[in-house]
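pasting input
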Amino acid sequence: MSLLPKQKVYQGVLDEIRGFIEKNKLNAGDKLPSERELAEKLQAGRSSIREALRALELLGLIETKAGEGTFLSTYRPFQTVELLSSFILQESNTREDLFLSKRIIEKEAAKLAFDRFTDQDFEEMYRMIDDTYEHPNDRHVAFFNFIFMKTGNLLLARIWHLMEKFSHTIKRDVYDPSFYRELVRLYTEHDYVSIENLFSKQES
Amino acid sequence: MSLLPKQKVYQGVLDEIRGFIEKNKLNAGDKLPSERELAEKLQAGRSSIREALRALELLGLIETKAGEGTFLSTYRPFQTVELLSSFILQESNTREDLFLSKRIIEKEAAKLAFDRFTDQDFEEMYRMIDDTYEHPNDRHVAFFNFIFMKTGNLLLARIWHLMEKFSHTIKRDVYDPSFYRELVRLYTEHDYVSIENLFSKQES
DNA sequence: AGTTATAGGTGGTCTGACCACCTATTAATT
DNA sequence: AATTAATAGGTGGTCAGACCACCTATAACT
């Protein structure tokens, strides 16, 4: 008796598709093989292929146009998030993990970006801080998005963005207004070591 | 000509299912109607029902057991984050991002776990360090897996595992053997602040 | 009563059939 | 010849029906 639950076909298809994208170095906008072609190539029924594709579509990873084909899309989580938020039963453990993880990543990004700012960048950050937003969280997103871009670490940025989207639907998680200003101040004064402390103070 | 793209059947099914759950006040663990029953009730083909259910399953919102039925599950974003991350990971061309991010997460986990060790834990960690492994990376994985478990942050652990899996296939990323021993020493001597430095030294 | 068949329900999967839609090629029209 | 119209083939969207493997409760047997 195996402890491994046998993998469903559509799960395998997911892996295969991922492999295909990697192997062929596909980028956003590129076309995937047709459903019928995939079915033949992967030795699976078209319905199984579709189950995998539909799931990917719901996650916003692919776009499908009737009569044309299936295409890799630039990742936009909005539809996923919206769907999830309507289903979500909040589980405190999960929530805490999420917020804690997000904060860690924000902190490390803030440190990574430390020596990559110009005077013009500081101006722009102050401007973002002073701007008025519809939702307080928009400031947070704009501000940290700027920082993440400065780190040049796209992966970290994407993961953060993902976490941001997920946490956003559950509860507001905005830092104290003075926080942002203080962070920029640390940047301008080249005070690296205090960044860690600044984030620690934000523990709620 | 309508600007609204006509909704696909499985999208509608998603809405119907959500409505069904709400209307009948279903909680985690409760059973959904069978696929055939839903197909009849919603006037749709079973394959369309399945496309919706598979998407929900991938999102971690439902669980299906062959021969039994489909059940509401407690919501865990881990699965989703994992899947999305796996796509995001392969997309980012720079593998350096991956290693840097992984190291950051390992470092923060090491700090999170700081005050959660017992003397027995230290013994176990030393044992893991001294064990012989087939691959050097196995030690790394075993050691940090232990640390991640101690943090109690399952989300962070999963993301790390994912990164580990990806990086593993590309290039070995093992710390200096003395590193692990030194980390445990910092734990035993309650030297929190030196953890950050220890990881910095590992910069290659 | 306890055990063993058994029948029916359930998800898992495949196949084949249409439909609506898009595009490129071809044919018809001017 | 240039333009337009018809067409054929590919693509996703959807359905119906067929098996299979698996589970469970019931019925039959000992």
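fyi The beta strands of chain A are 62-65, 69-72.
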